[in-house]
Design a protein that fits this description.
Strand order of the largest sheet: 7-2-1-8-9
CATH architecture of the largest domain: 3-Layer(aba) Sandwich
Radius of gyration: 19 Å
Number of helices: 13
Structural class: alpha/beta
Oligomer: single chain
Shape: globular
Distance between the termini: 7 Å
Amino acid sequence: MTRQSIVFPGQGSQEKGMGRELAETWADAMDLWKEAEKSSGAPLREIYWDGEDKDMAETRYLQPALTVVNVSLWGYFKGRLDAAAVAGHSLGEYSALCAAGVLSARDILKLVSLRGRLMSEAAAGGGDGRMAAVLKAPQETVEQLVRDAAEATGKTILVANYNTPAQFVVSGNGPAVDHVCAAAKGVKARAMALPVSGAFHSPLMNEAAAELSGVMKKMEWKTPTIPVWFNATAATEADPAAIAGIMDRQMTSSVFWTQIVTKQYEEGIRFFVELGPKGVLTKMVSQILKGREDVEVENVSGVQGSFPA
């Protein structure tokens, strides 16, 4: 069996009915849904199995629900995987921590339920935090746009997501994000505001991150059983205390996804298996490693879906 990197998607990968088939097939998955509903105080199965799209997009519901799907798929299929590494994109990083045994499923669901609520409250708090996607421009150009916007406006802005070599997300105060969007045309890039009302993965989330940190400090962090590649560092870490410190700043730091995938390839990973709905990361990995003929990518989203040999 080929050594694999198991990757877990984050916000934006939700879809109606996600996780239902597995939960109705495997009792442990149904128990995770019940645990998530207890942690979040929301009828997650009702929302994601029979609800409306607008409710499914709610951050406070989405984060625990998607984490249940990711973690359930891992629990169901892990015996058929040869995981040499795990990683998760933004919210998905919590699923990776669970897969590697760093935190229990119960603690993970408690954290993502709180994280979803805090991010939702921050977005609804009336600030001017915004995010925008910048496409069809190289990393150096996007980083220059961000530096120019910060200097011109005096506001906070950073590259929040390094998704692929030609897909980035910037995050910060509204005037600075608007400046990047306006300037993108001049460098033949495409920029578009994202339908969020908060500046996620930026220092504007400091208050929410501090509250989440207080809960994290009370949890028992363990040494990973599988190497975990972290969003904020694009590197692995084995020391539990250091991992807790990295996760402490995850909500306010950039997501170095392109760098993670590239480094995993450089260390010999050739098979990337995404556990979660939609296959968003499967597409990203293919774009990041485009032109390398020895790369395989697979998305496993349900019991009846395709699965790596």
